[in-house]
Structure formats: C-alpha cells, structure tokens
Amino acid sequence: xxxxxxxxxxxxxxxxxxxxxxxxxxxxxxxxxxxxxxxxxxxxxxxxxxxxxxxxxxxxxxxxxxxx
Amino acid sequence: xxxxxxxxxxxxxxxxxxxxxxxxxxxxxxxxxxxxxxxxxxxxxxxxxxxxxxxxxxxxxxxxxxxxxxxxxxxxxxxxxxxxxxxxxxxxxxxxxxxxxxxxxxxxxxxxxxxxxxxxxxxxxxxxxxxxxxxxxxxxxxxxxxxxxxxxxxxxxxxxxxxxxxxxxxxxxxxxxxxxxxxxxxxxxxxxxxxxxxxxxxxxxxxxxxxxxxxxxxxxxxxxxxxxxxxxxxxxxxxxxxxxxxxxxxxxxxxxxxxxxxxxxxxxxxxxxxxxxxxxxxxxxxxxxxxxxxxxxxxxxxxxxxxxxxxxxxxxxxxx
Amino acid sequence: xxxxxxxxxxxxxxxxxxxxxxxxxxxxxxxxxxxxxxxxxxxxxxxxxxxxxxxxxxxxxxxxxxxxxxxxxxxxxxxxxxxxxxxxxxxxxxxxxxxxxxxxxxxxxxxxxxxxxxxxxxxxxxxxxxxxxxxxxxxxxxxxxxxxxxxxxxxxxxxxxxxxxxxxxx
Lengths: 68, 320, 170
Known about the structure:
The structure holds 3 protein chains of 3 kinds.
Chain A: H1 5-27, H2 31-64
Helix pairs in contact in A: 1-2
Chain B: E1 6-9, H1 12-15, H2 20-27, H3 31-35, E2 37-43, E3 48-52, E4 55-59, H4 70-81, H5 89-94, E5 96-98, E6 104-114, E7 117-130, E8 133-136, H6 143-146, E9 147-148, E10 151-152, E11 155-159, H7 165-178, E12 190-194, E13 202-203, E14 206-207, E15 215-219, H8 223-234, E16 238-241, H9 247-258, E17 262-268, H10 272-276, H11 282-286, E18 292-296, E19 305-309, H12 311-319
Parallel strand pairs in B: 11-17, 11-18, 12-15, 12-16, 16-17
Antiparallel strand pairs in B: 1-8, 2-3, 2-7, 3-4, 5-6, 6-7, 9-10, 13-14, 18-19
Helix pairs in contact in B: 8-9
Chain C: H1 2-47, H2 52-60, H3 67-80, H4 85-99, H5 104-116, H6 122-169
C-alpha cells in the first residue's frame, strides 16, 4: 500500500464541505441546487479516485488472468 | 414733448415652444412680416395659420398636405408646461397659458368636466398663440387730461372689445409707476389686480410686460377680493383693474375710493350711455367715483380715443 | 507557497459571497430610497406645483446615491431639452441600471411611472404616484424577504466554495 494518504484526506475534506453546502442550501429552501451540488461533488471525487480504481482493476486482471 | 410710440414685439420668444419644423416654416416668410405676426394658430394635422397684421397666411402653403403632426402637438404642450402638465391645472381650467414674453396661448380640445364644471382640457387639438404687443407711449398724449393738480384722477376706460383698452391701461400703469417728468408727476405706487393675467401677462407672478419700478401685481386674482387685498397689504396710490362689471367689483372700487386710493379701470361698452345703463355699476355713479371717462372709438384703429369726459359733461349729457 | 494560494482563493470567494449578499441588501435600501424620492417628488408636484426639472433637482438633493444621481441626470436632461419627459426618463433609467443593484422588475415599475410623468393633471398624477408607490412597496417586500433568506447563504456559500476549491486543488 503505497497510496497517498493525502487523497483520502482530500476526499474526506470534500465530503465535509459539500455536506455543509448541502445543509446551507437546504436550509434556504434551495434543495434542487443542493442536490446538484452533491452530484457535482460526487463526480469530482469520482474523477479523483479514477486512477486508483484503474489500478485496482489492473491488479485484479493480473491476478485472475495471469497476464503480465 | 411726448415720447415716441414704441412697439415691443418679441415674436422670437414664441419660437422656444415651437417644434423646429414649424419655426422653419415661419422663418421662411419675410422678416418684417414676422415682426407683424399677431396670432399663430396651430391645429392638429392642419396647416399653420398666421395672422399677420389682420391678413391670414397659411404655412407651409395653402392646400399643402403637410400638417402639424401628433408628436409636434405633444412637443408644444411639453414645452409650454416644462414637461410638467400638472403645473398648469389652473391654466387648463381657464383655457389659456401665459408664456415668457407675456404671450398668451389659448387651448382647445377635449374638455373634462366634473359634475358639470370644467376641470380642464385634456387632448389638446388647437393652440392659438396671441403675440403680446406692448405699445409703450400710447397714453402719453392723454396724461395731462387725466390728472389734476399733480394728482391722478380715477378713470374709467370704456370701449368695445379690441379697441385698445388693455393696451392703454397697461401704458397708464407704466406711466404712473415711472412718473411723468413733463407734468412734474412723481412715480407712484401702482397695484395691478390682474384677474385674467392680461394686463401684466405674468409668468410665475413676474410681469412679462415692461412696467416701471413701482408696480405690484396680483396675478390671476379675483378682482373684488384682489382690490381689498392690495389696499390692505400693499397700500397702493393707484389701483389698476381690467374689465369690471360685477356687483362685487363696484363695491370694491367704492371701498378703495373710501380708502383714498385712485382706481383706473376698464369696462366693456360702446360709450358712456351704454355703461350708464348697467345696474351692477350703479353705485359708481351715485358716489361720483370716477372723475374721467375715456371712450374708445369702435370700428377704427385700436387705440383711437373718441372722447375724454368729465362727470360734469356726462351729467349734462344725461340731463339733455 | 501552497498555503498562501489557498488563503488567497478562500479570501476571494468569501469576498464574492459577501459582495453578493451586499447586493441584496443594497437593493432593498435603494428601493426604499426610490420610494422616498417619489414621495418627495409628489409633494413637490402637488403642493408647490414645481416644474419637473426643478422638482427632480430638489429631490436629488434629498436622497442618497445612486437614486440621487438618477434624478439629477433626469433633471439635467430635461433642462437641456429632451423631446419628451419619458425619453429623458428612459435614458436616465438606463444609467441607473448600470450603477445600482435594482433588478429588471424594479426598473420596470419605475419606467412605468415615467411614462405618465408630466403628461397628466394633478389628480391623475397623484393616482399614478400612489400606484407606483404600492408597486415599489411590493418589490421592496419581496427584496427584503429575499435578503433575509439569502444573505447568510451567500456569505457561507462563498466561504465553503473557496474551501472546496482549495481542497480539490491541493
């Protein structure tokens, strides 16, 4: 496991902030926008972890298909 | 020596309220004729009508298809009111507006009434601009006959409409307030009660005609009340009023006489006999209020004076 | 270095949030100023019968900017001689739009008032003033409601947005 611990913290930070934004927006009665913000944050986080997921799939492939 | 008659005519002041196109039309005629314009009539979608010295002219030409446009009518109204029609409530009720230079703009159009009383004119379809002409010096020649021992006599000007009464009245007011050196008359305080805004042609209370230094004007004030106000507040030596004829007017004049104020007034009528028959003016004869009667000749050039009478002549004439 | 950048971003977005919040507050205030201005204009018109140009000049001295600028521009335009009061009104309103926080719906109300300005007699004018005042009242109510709801939201959103951006960028 040589992955950057920073990434985890980053994702956690985004999660916290987006949760706060969601709450604020919801309180002001703009739930629609709140949902969109959450969705957007999800996509951004997904983009951040895409490399890691790619790595995961590569590893699985190399384990089961004995490639490399 | 009598001063020369000077005609003060400032037709150019009217141009300020007219749209450029109409000014251009008027400027196309001869300069000397422009100076003689007496009336400018503007009617919606009609040609411009000028009354030049009694002669009628149409601009841009007779039978022309070009008329005054809707927006030009609106422009004139805007200019007349300074973009503030609401300031003209009173004027619209009376049907005319006095503008800079003392010119009078008469209005016609859709009248709005409130319980049978005229509230004002809304959609204006005609303007009639009467150019104010002040002829200085018309009364100069007659001054010696209107005074006695260095004092002005109460005078009644009698004449049919358009015979020059008001012009004469205006000039008298000027002479009184300026003084008349050749008869050694000092300048006196003059109070003008100008119910129809015609003597002084006031704009915002300031007379637009040339008067001397000692003139006070009550503009658009009912005559009877105005005379009493003047006597109480301004202590004039001479009161000048236009077109007397109602009972209250005569009462106020008698009151003024009792207060020691001389009155110079004008009245509609052909001559002395005509005026004498009016019941409303009755108190004036009983008290011998007026000491001079100036009769204006009808059917001749405005300002022609037929006779100046004294009460003595008049009573003789009546007893005959 | 990274820390400095992060601070910059957070400050900037917080600033934006505060600016938006201020806009809301200003709108309410300007509507109130406009209401006051029209009320004094009415007083000038009805009680002293002052012509429009002069009345607006006086009004412009009684209210704070940018409403005062609007009225003085209008007054100047009239004195210079515009073809109609409405045209001068429209022009001044365009400049007001650029310098104020008023929204289109507010400007529409004011524009509608200008359409009849100086074209009617006192009574009509008074009615028009009343109508406009009630319209502005409605706009003001809406604006103050919006302000109450959204003012804090804009402030916290600005800060949180900045925070989010720095986290993503780090």
